[in-house]
Amino acid sequence: MAPLEPSDILITPNNIDIQKAADGQVLIRNGSFLVDLEAPVEMVEVLRFFRAPRRASEVMSEYDGIDMEVLQHLVDHFILYRPSEAEIFAFGALIRPAQPIGGFLSIKDLPPPAEARATRFLIFGAPVDLGAAGYGGARHGPEAIRAACTMRLGALGRKATEGGTAAWDFETHQRHDLTQLEVSDLGDVSYTPGESNGDFGRRVTWFAERAHAHGYLPIGLGGDHSVARFFLRPFLKTGGAPFGIVHFDAHTDLYQAPAGIFSHGNPFDEALESENLKSLFQVGQRQLRTDRAEPTSDSRLQFVSSLDVWRKSPAEVFANLPPELPCYLTFDVDCMSATECPETGTPVPGGLLYYHALELVDWLVANRRIVGADFVEVTGPVSPSNRAAQVCASLMLRLIVGHGPTTRFENPQLHRKGTSLDTFGT
Ligand SMILES: [Mn+2]
Fold first, then answer.
1. Which CATH class is domain 94-408?
2. Distance from the CA of 202 to the center of ligand 1, in angstroms?
3. Which CATH number does 9-88 carry?
4. Which label site among 160, 186, 298, 403 has the fewest CB atoms less than 10 Å from its CB?
5. CA angle, 179 as apex, 174 and 103 as ends, to 5°?
6. Hey, how many other C-beta atoms are within 10 angstroms of the C-beta on 378?
Protein backbone atom coordinates (compact mmCIF):
# COMPACT_ATOMS: atom_id res chain seq x y z
CA MET A 1 0.00 0.00 0.00
CA ALA A 2 1.20 3.53 -0.76
CA PRO A 3 2.83 5.34 2.18
CA LEU A 4 0.63 7.83 3.95
CA GLU A 5 0.61 11.43 2.69
CA PRO A 6 -0.43 14.53 4.74
CA SER A 7 -3.29 15.10 2.30
CA ASP A 8 -4.68 11.58 2.85
CA ILE A 9 -8.10 11.33 4.46
CA LEU A 10 -8.42 8.96 7.42
CA ILE A 11 -11.19 7.63 9.61
CA THR A 12 -11.40 5.68 12.87
CA PRO A 13 -13.02 2.28 12.34
CA ASN A 14 -16.32 1.80 14.13
CA ASN A 15 -15.20 -1.40 15.80
CA ILE A 16 -12.30 -0.05 17.86
CA ASP A 17 -12.24 -1.04 21.52
CA ILE A 18 -10.20 0.98 24.03
CA GLN A 19 -9.17 -0.25 27.48
CA LYS A 20 -7.08 1.37 30.20
CA ALA A 21 -3.60 -0.03 30.62
CA ALA A 22 -0.78 0.77 33.08
CA ASP A 23 1.26 4.00 33.24
CA GLY A 24 -1.01 6.35 31.36
CA GLN A 25 -1.28 3.95 28.44
CA VAL A 26 -4.36 2.59 26.75
CA LEU A 27 -4.82 -0.64 24.86
CA ILE A 28 -6.43 0.00 21.50
CA ARG A 29 -7.90 -3.11 19.92
CA ASN A 30 -9.25 -3.75 16.47
CA GLY A 31 -10.89 -7.12 16.98
CA SER A 32 -11.65 -7.47 13.29
CA PHE A 33 -7.97 -7.55 12.45
CA LEU A 34 -6.95 -9.34 15.64
CA VAL A 35 -4.54 -6.50 16.51
CA ASP A 36 -3.77 -4.72 19.79
CA LEU A 37 -1.73 -1.56 20.15
CA GLU A 38 -0.54 0.10 23.35
CA ALA A 39 -0.53 3.87 23.07
CA PRO A 40 -0.46 6.98 25.30
CA VAL A 41 -3.88 7.94 26.65
CA GLU A 42 -3.83 11.12 24.50
CA MET A 43 -4.29 8.91 21.48
CA VAL A 44 -7.95 8.50 22.44
CA GLU A 45 -8.45 12.18 21.52
CA VAL A 46 -6.82 11.61 18.16
CA LEU A 47 -9.14 8.69 17.43
CA ARG A 48 -12.14 10.87 18.38
CA PHE A 49 -10.87 13.50 15.97
CA PHE A 50 -11.04 10.95 13.16
CA ARG A 51 -14.59 9.78 13.88
CA ALA A 52 -15.51 11.84 10.85
CA PRO A 53 -13.16 11.63 7.85
CA ARG A 54 -10.35 14.21 8.22
CA ARG A 55 -7.02 14.88 6.56
CA ALA A 56 -3.80 13.69 8.21
CA SER A 57 -2.48 17.27 8.01
CA GLU A 58 -5.43 18.56 10.06
CA VAL A 59 -4.67 16.42 13.11
CA MET A 60 -1.00 17.36 12.97
CA SER A 61 -1.82 21.06 13.22
CA GLU A 62 -4.33 20.38 16.01
CA TYR A 63 -2.26 18.16 18.33
CA ASP A 64 1.37 18.37 19.42
CA GLY A 65 3.43 15.22 19.06
CA ILE A 66 1.36 13.75 16.25
CA ASP A 67 3.42 13.41 13.11
CA MET A 68 3.31 11.32 9.96
CA GLU A 69 5.26 8.54 11.63
CA VAL A 70 2.66 8.20 14.40
CA LEU A 71 -0.20 8.23 11.91
CA GLN A 72 1.51 5.68 9.67
CA HIS A 73 1.94 3.45 12.74
CA LEU A 74 -1.80 3.68 13.44
CA VAL A 75 -2.62 2.92 9.81
CA ASP A 76 -0.23 -0.04 9.83
CA HIS A 77 -2.06 -1.42 12.88
CA PHE A 78 -5.54 -0.88 11.37
CA ILE A 79 -6.41 1.66 14.09
CA LEU A 80 -6.96 4.30 11.38
CA TYR A 81 -8.27 3.46 7.91
CA ARG A 82 -8.47 5.16 4.61
CA PRO A 83 -12.23 5.56 3.98
CA SER A 84 -12.15 3.08 1.08
CA GLU A 85 -10.91 0.43 3.51
CA ALA A 86 -13.41 1.45 6.19
CA GLU A 87 -16.09 0.52 3.70
CA ILE A 88 -14.48 -2.84 2.97
CA PHE A 89 -13.89 -3.73 6.61
CA ALA A 90 -17.00 -2.27 8.23
CA PHE A 91 -18.25 -5.74 9.11
CA GLY A 92 -15.00 -7.33 10.20
CA ALA A 93 -11.99 -8.85 8.62
CA LEU A 94 -10.45 -12.01 10.03
CA ILE A 95 -11.39 -15.01 12.10
CA ARG A 96 -8.49 -16.52 14.02
CA PRO A 97 -7.91 -20.16 13.09
CA ALA A 98 -8.37 -22.73 15.85
CA GLN A 99 -5.57 -24.84 14.37
CA PRO A 100 -3.27 -22.63 12.31
CA ILE A 101 -1.05 -24.22 9.68
CA GLY A 102 2.49 -23.15 10.52
CA GLY A 103 2.49 -20.11 12.76
CA PHE A 104 -0.45 -17.79 13.23
CA LEU A 105 0.51 -14.40 11.83
CA SER A 106 -1.37 -11.20 12.57
CA ILE A 107 -1.94 -9.08 9.47
CA LYS A 108 -0.12 -6.17 11.16
CA ASP A 109 3.04 -8.29 11.44
CA LEU A 110 3.47 -9.03 7.74
CA PRO A 111 7.18 -8.37 7.21
CA PRO A 112 8.29 -5.87 4.60
CA PRO A 113 8.82 -7.44 1.15
CA ALA A 114 12.52 -6.55 1.26
CA GLU A 115 13.00 -9.10 4.05
CA ALA A 116 12.16 -11.91 1.67
CA ARG A 117 14.83 -14.56 1.90
CA ALA A 118 13.00 -17.82 2.39
CA THR A 119 10.15 -19.25 0.42
CA ARG A 120 7.27 -17.86 2.39
CA PHE A 121 3.76 -19.25 2.30
CA LEU A 122 0.77 -17.31 3.52
CA ILE A 123 -2.38 -19.29 4.16
CA PHE A 124 -5.79 -17.69 4.42
CA GLY A 125 -9.31 -19.03 4.12
CA ALA A 126 -12.46 -17.84 2.41
CA PRO A 127 -15.19 -19.82 4.20
CA VAL A 128 -18.22 -19.32 1.96
CA ASP A 129 -20.37 -21.36 -0.38
CA LEU A 130 -22.23 -18.43 -1.92
CA GLY A 131 -21.26 -19.51 -5.44
CA ALA A 132 -22.20 -23.17 -5.09
CA ALA A 133 -24.91 -24.51 -7.35
CA GLY A 134 -24.99 -28.01 -5.84
CA TYR A 135 -24.90 -28.82 -2.19
CA GLY A 136 -23.47 -26.23 0.18
CA GLY A 137 -21.05 -26.88 2.96
CA ALA A 138 -17.80 -25.66 1.38
CA ARG A 139 -17.88 -22.83 3.91
CA HIS A 140 -16.45 -25.42 6.33
CA GLY A 141 -13.53 -26.17 4.00
CA PRO A 142 -10.80 -24.01 5.55
CA GLU A 143 -11.29 -25.37 9.05
CA ALA A 144 -11.74 -28.93 7.76
CA ILE A 145 -8.43 -28.73 5.87
CA ARG A 146 -6.67 -27.24 8.88
CA ALA A 147 -8.08 -29.99 11.10
CA ALA A 148 -6.73 -32.60 8.68
CA CYS A 149 -3.17 -31.20 8.77
CA THR A 150 -1.52 -33.82 10.90
CA MET A 151 2.10 -32.92 10.25
CA ARG A 152 3.91 -30.80 12.78
CA LEU A 153 4.79 -27.55 11.08
CA GLY A 154 6.38 -25.90 14.09
CA ALA A 155 9.65 -25.49 12.28
CA LEU A 156 7.90 -23.75 9.44
CA GLY A 157 6.12 -21.20 11.59
CA ARG A 158 7.53 -17.77 11.17
CA LYS A 159 8.55 -17.43 14.78
CA ALA A 160 8.62 -21.00 16.02
CA THR A 161 11.90 -22.84 16.30
CA GLU A 162 10.72 -26.19 17.59
CA GLY A 163 10.10 -29.15 15.36
CA GLY A 164 12.35 -30.77 12.83
CA THR A 165 14.42 -29.16 10.15
CA ALA A 166 13.50 -31.71 7.50
CA ALA A 167 10.34 -33.40 6.29
CA TRP A 168 10.67 -37.09 5.47
CA ASP A 169 8.18 -38.29 2.92
CA PHE A 170 8.01 -42.02 3.48
CA GLU A 171 5.61 -42.27 0.56
CA THR A 172 7.89 -40.85 -2.11
CA HIS A 173 11.34 -41.37 -0.52
CA GLN A 174 11.98 -37.63 -0.48
CA ARG A 175 13.77 -35.69 2.21
CA HIS A 176 12.84 -32.01 2.13
CA ASP A 177 15.04 -29.46 3.88
CA LEU A 178 12.75 -27.03 5.71
CA THR A 179 15.25 -24.50 6.99
CA GLN A 180 14.47 -21.91 4.32
CA LEU A 181 10.69 -22.25 4.44
CA GLU A 182 8.22 -20.17 6.37
CA VAL A 183 4.53 -20.93 6.69
CA SER A 184 2.13 -18.48 8.25
CA ASP A 185 -1.62 -18.57 8.66
CA LEU A 186 -3.63 -15.34 8.72
CA GLY A 187 -6.92 -17.05 9.52
CA ASP A 188 -10.14 -16.79 7.56
CA VAL A 189 -11.72 -13.75 5.99
CA SER A 190 -14.93 -13.28 7.95
CA TYR A 191 -18.22 -13.46 6.12
CA THR A 192 -21.14 -11.33 7.26
CA PRO A 193 -24.55 -12.96 6.77
CA GLY A 194 -26.43 -11.19 4.00
CA GLU A 195 -23.29 -9.86 2.33
CA SER A 196 -22.99 -10.47 -1.42
CA ASN A 197 -20.27 -12.69 -2.84
CA GLY A 198 -18.87 -9.64 -4.64
CA ASP A 199 -18.55 -7.57 -1.45
CA PHE A 200 -17.05 -10.49 0.42
CA GLY A 201 -14.72 -11.05 -2.52
CA ARG A 202 -13.41 -7.50 -2.35
CA ARG A 203 -12.11 -8.28 1.13
CA VAL A 204 -10.65 -11.61 0.01
CA THR A 205 -8.94 -9.76 -2.83
CA TRP A 206 -7.53 -7.24 -0.35
CA PHE A 207 -5.85 -10.03 1.63
CA ALA A 208 -4.65 -11.76 -1.54
CA GLU A 209 -3.07 -8.47 -2.60
CA ARG A 210 -1.32 -8.10 0.77
CA ALA A 211 0.16 -11.60 0.37
CA HIS A 212 1.32 -10.67 -3.10
CA ALA A 213 2.77 -7.30 -2.09
CA HIS A 214 4.70 -8.83 0.79
CA GLY A 215 6.37 -11.44 -1.38
CA TYR A 216 4.43 -14.45 -0.14
CA LEU A 217 3.33 -17.48 -2.06
CA PRO A 218 -0.39 -17.35 -1.23
CA ILE A 219 -2.37 -20.50 -0.44
CA GLY A 220 -6.11 -19.83 -0.36
CA LEU A 221 -8.50 -22.27 1.27
CA GLY A 222 -12.06 -22.37 -0.04
CA GLY A 223 -14.88 -22.14 0.06
CA ASP A 224 -16.59 -23.04 -3.13
CA HIS A 225 -14.64 -22.48 -6.34
CA SER A 226 -16.03 -18.96 -6.82
CA VAL A 227 -13.44 -17.70 -4.32
CA ALA A 228 -10.57 -18.59 -6.71
CA ARG A 229 -11.68 -15.54 -8.73
CA PHE A 230 -10.68 -13.35 -5.79
CA PHE A 231 -7.47 -15.26 -5.01
CA LEU A 232 -6.42 -14.76 -8.65
CA ARG A 233 -7.04 -11.04 -8.98
CA PRO A 234 -3.56 -9.88 -7.84
CA PHE A 235 -2.10 -11.89 -10.73
CA LEU A 236 -4.29 -10.09 -13.27
CA LYS A 237 -3.09 -6.50 -12.79
CA THR A 238 -2.27 -4.76 -16.06
CA GLY A 239 1.40 -5.24 -16.87
CA GLY A 240 1.75 -8.14 -14.44
CA ALA A 241 3.92 -11.18 -15.06
CA PRO A 242 2.76 -13.86 -17.51
CA PHE A 243 1.43 -16.94 -15.76
CA GLY A 244 -0.65 -20.05 -16.26
CA ILE A 245 -3.40 -21.67 -14.23
CA VAL A 246 -3.27 -25.41 -13.63
CA HIS A 247 -6.85 -26.33 -12.83
CA PHE A 248 -7.71 -29.68 -11.25
CA ASP A 249 -11.46 -30.25 -11.48
CA ALA A 250 -14.14 -32.70 -12.60
CA HIS A 251 -15.75 -29.76 -14.40
CA THR A 252 -14.41 -27.23 -16.88
CA ASP A 253 -15.80 -24.33 -14.82
CA LEU A 254 -16.21 -22.38 -18.08
CA TYR A 255 -19.93 -21.76 -17.80
CA GLN A 256 -21.28 -18.53 -19.20
CA ALA A 257 -22.92 -16.45 -16.50
CA PRO A 258 -24.47 -12.99 -16.57
CA ALA A 259 -22.00 -10.23 -15.67
CA GLY A 260 -21.56 -9.85 -11.95
CA ILE A 261 -22.63 -13.40 -11.10
CA PHE A 262 -19.76 -14.95 -9.20
CA SER A 263 -20.49 -18.64 -9.34
CA HIS A 264 -18.30 -21.66 -8.79
CA GLY A 265 -19.02 -22.40 -12.46
CA ASN A 266 -17.16 -19.35 -13.80
CA PRO A 267 -14.16 -18.60 -11.54
CA PHE A 268 -11.78 -17.88 -14.45
CA ASP A 269 -13.68 -15.41 -16.60
CA GLU A 270 -11.73 -12.42 -15.22
CA ALA A 271 -8.46 -14.33 -15.64
CA LEU A 272 -9.32 -15.18 -19.26
CA GLU A 273 -9.80 -11.46 -19.95
CA SER A 274 -6.26 -10.76 -18.72
CA GLU A 275 -3.28 -10.68 -21.05
CA ASN A 276 -1.18 -12.01 -18.17
CA LEU A 277 -2.88 -15.39 -18.45
CA LYS A 278 -1.07 -17.50 -21.04
CA SER A 279 -2.50 -20.92 -20.26
CA LEU A 280 -5.52 -22.43 -18.54
CA PHE A 281 -4.41 -26.03 -18.23
CA GLN A 282 -7.21 -28.25 -16.97
CA VAL A 283 -6.80 -31.70 -15.43
CA GLY A 284 -9.39 -34.29 -14.39
CA GLN A 285 -12.45 -33.20 -16.37
CA ARG A 286 -15.15 -35.82 -16.95
CA GLN A 287 -18.53 -34.15 -17.02
CA LEU A 288 -21.18 -34.95 -19.61
CA ARG A 289 -23.11 -31.81 -20.37
CA THR A 290 -25.11 -29.84 -22.84
CA ASP A 291 -24.55 -26.18 -23.43
CA ARG A 292 -25.99 -23.49 -25.68
CA ALA A 293 -22.54 -22.58 -26.92
CA GLU A 294 -19.82 -24.76 -28.41
CA PRO A 295 -16.73 -25.09 -26.21
CA THR A 296 -14.59 -21.98 -26.52
CA SER A 297 -11.81 -21.86 -29.08
CA ASP A 298 -9.51 -19.80 -26.84
CA SER A 299 -6.06 -21.19 -27.69
CA ARG A 300 -4.93 -20.86 -24.08
CA LEU A 301 -7.26 -23.68 -23.04
CA GLN A 302 -6.06 -27.27 -22.85
CA PHE A 303 -7.45 -30.17 -20.93
CA VAL A 304 -6.32 -33.61 -19.85
CA SER A 305 -9.38 -35.56 -18.81
CA SER A 306 -9.65 -37.83 -15.80
CA LEU A 307 -9.46 -40.88 -18.06
CA ASP A 308 -6.40 -39.37 -19.79
CA VAL A 309 -4.71 -39.06 -16.38
CA TRP A 310 -5.30 -42.78 -15.74
CA ARG A 311 -3.49 -43.54 -19.00
CA LYS A 312 -0.56 -41.12 -18.77
CA SER A 313 2.50 -40.44 -16.65
CA PRO A 314 2.76 -37.03 -14.95
CA ALA A 315 5.33 -35.92 -17.54
CA GLU A 316 2.91 -36.90 -20.32
CA VAL A 317 0.00 -35.13 -18.60
CA PHE A 318 1.93 -31.86 -18.45
CA ALA A 319 3.87 -32.26 -21.70
CA ASN A 320 2.14 -29.23 -23.24
CA LEU A 321 2.38 -26.96 -20.21
CA PRO A 322 5.05 -24.39 -21.18
CA PRO A 323 8.16 -25.10 -19.04
CA GLU A 324 9.06 -21.47 -18.33
CA LEU A 325 5.57 -20.35 -17.38
CA PRO A 326 4.97 -19.74 -13.64
CA CYS A 327 1.85 -21.57 -12.51
CA TYR A 328 -0.99 -20.92 -10.16
CA LEU A 329 -2.50 -24.20 -8.96
CA THR A 330 -6.22 -24.33 -8.25
CA PHE A 331 -7.32 -27.67 -6.85
CA ASP A 332 -11.04 -28.43 -6.82
CA VAL A 333 -11.31 -31.59 -4.75
CA ASP A 334 -14.09 -32.90 -7.00
CA CYS A 335 -11.34 -33.81 -9.49
CA MET A 336 -10.85 -36.76 -7.14
CA SER A 337 -12.85 -39.93 -7.12
CA ALA A 338 -15.78 -39.56 -4.74
CA THR A 339 -14.87 -42.99 -3.38
CA GLU A 340 -11.79 -41.32 -1.90
CA CYS A 341 -13.12 -37.78 -1.45
CA PRO A 342 -16.87 -37.85 -0.83
CA GLU A 343 -16.98 -34.52 1.03
CA THR A 344 -17.66 -32.20 -1.89
CA GLY A 345 -20.69 -30.42 -3.31
CA THR A 346 -20.87 -31.59 -6.94
CA PRO A 347 -19.39 -35.11 -7.18
CA VAL A 348 -19.00 -36.81 -10.57
CA PRO A 349 -18.40 -40.54 -11.19
CA GLY A 350 -14.85 -41.57 -12.01
CA GLY A 351 -11.98 -39.32 -11.08
CA LEU A 352 -8.42 -39.23 -9.87
CA LEU A 353 -7.07 -41.40 -7.10
CA TYR A 354 -4.92 -39.94 -4.37
CA TYR A 355 -1.77 -41.34 -5.96
CA HIS A 356 -2.55 -39.64 -9.26
CA ALA A 357 -2.96 -36.30 -7.52
CA LEU A 358 0.11 -36.86 -5.35
CA GLU A 359 2.33 -37.59 -8.34
CA LEU A 360 0.91 -34.75 -10.43
CA VAL A 361 1.34 -32.14 -7.69
CA ASP A 362 4.82 -33.48 -6.89
CA TRP A 363 5.72 -33.24 -10.57
CA LEU A 364 4.53 -29.64 -10.77
CA VAL A 365 6.46 -28.60 -7.67
CA ALA A 366 9.62 -30.25 -9.02
CA ASN A 367 9.30 -29.06 -12.62
CA ARG A 368 7.41 -25.78 -12.68
CA ARG A 369 7.50 -22.60 -10.62
CA ILE A 370 4.38 -22.37 -8.46
CA VAL A 371 3.34 -18.79 -7.67
CA GLY A 372 0.14 -19.47 -5.75
CA ALA A 373 -2.36 -22.17 -4.96
CA ASP A 374 -5.80 -22.83 -3.63
CA PHE A 375 -7.75 -25.85 -2.41
CA VAL A 376 -11.50 -25.54 -2.82
CA GLU A 377 -14.86 -27.33 -2.66
CA VAL A 378 -14.14 -29.38 0.46
CA THR A 379 -17.38 -29.50 2.44
CA GLY A 380 -17.74 -30.28 6.14
CA PRO A 381 -17.66 -31.88 8.57
CA VAL A 382 -14.71 -30.26 10.32
CA SER A 383 -13.10 -33.50 11.38
CA PRO A 384 -9.80 -35.29 10.94
CA SER A 385 -11.79 -38.07 9.28
CA ASN A 386 -13.00 -35.79 6.46
CA ARG A 387 -11.29 -37.59 3.58
CA ALA A 388 -11.50 -34.75 1.05
CA ALA A 389 -9.87 -32.51 3.65
CA GLN A 390 -7.19 -35.13 4.32
CA VAL A 391 -6.30 -35.27 0.64
CA CYS A 392 -6.15 -31.48 0.28
CA ALA A 393 -4.11 -31.16 3.48
CA SER A 394 -1.67 -33.81 2.31
CA LEU A 395 -1.25 -32.24 -1.13
CA MET A 396 -0.89 -28.77 0.37
CA LEU A 397 1.77 -29.94 2.84
CA ARG A 398 3.68 -31.67 0.04
CA LEU A 399 3.42 -28.55 -2.10
CA ILE A 400 4.92 -26.56 0.79
CA VAL A 401 7.72 -28.90 1.88
CA GLY A 402 8.57 -29.68 -1.74
CA HIS A 403 9.86 -26.12 -2.04
CA GLY A 404 12.80 -26.95 0.22
CA PRO A 405 15.94 -28.56 -1.23
CA THR A 406 14.99 -32.18 -1.81
CA THR A 407 17.05 -35.36 -1.84
CA ARG A 408 16.14 -39.01 -2.07
CA PHE A 409 16.47 -41.53 0.75
CA GLU A 410 16.15 -45.29 0.62
CA ASN A 411 16.09 -46.82 4.04
CA PRO A 412 13.32 -45.61 6.31
CA GLN A 413 14.36 -48.05 9.07
CA LEU A 414 17.53 -46.15 9.97
CA HIS A 415 15.85 -43.85 12.43
CA ARG A 416 14.82 -46.79 14.57
CA LYS A 417 18.45 -47.17 15.59
CA GLY A 418 18.25 -43.85 17.45
CA THR A 419 19.71 -41.74 14.68
CA SER A 420 18.43 -38.22 15.00
CA LEU A 421 16.24 -37.30 12.07
CA ASP A 422 17.81 -33.85 12.17
CA THR A 423 21.30 -35.14 11.49
CA PHE A 424 20.55 -38.20 9.39
CA GLY A 425 21.97 -37.37 5.97
CA THR A 426 21.42 -39.06 2.65
MN1 LIG B 1 -14.55 -26.17 -9.74
1. alpha beta
2. 20
3. 3.90.930.70
4. 298
5. 105
6. 35
